[in-house]
Task: structure prediction
Amino acid sequence: MNPRTQLPAASALAVLMVGAWSYVLLAPVSGVRVANHTGDILRNVQVCVQGGACLNRARLLPHESWRVPTPGERTCVEVRVPGEGARQACVNAEDRPGVRLVVTRQSGIQTQE
Result:
């Protein structure tokens, strides 16, 4: 690379990185977050939206969370966790952006803001 173009190229790269980090940290939170507070590994966790589209996660480790994007229109999100009776929870993700669905051992799935 030509020495005269190194400084402008490095400056442009720095500006792009600052912009990317700003977007990641300051962008509005969308979708839902599923958190595992059971103390066990959850297997085959499924998050579905109205219309039948589902995302699956093979395993969710204890105290790990999974951010699931949701479509822009009003949609109800349902979380299914197989095991001791399939536990389900439904929440409107657009009315409650950034909602967190916490899977617990005692009471199934709870919602938290």
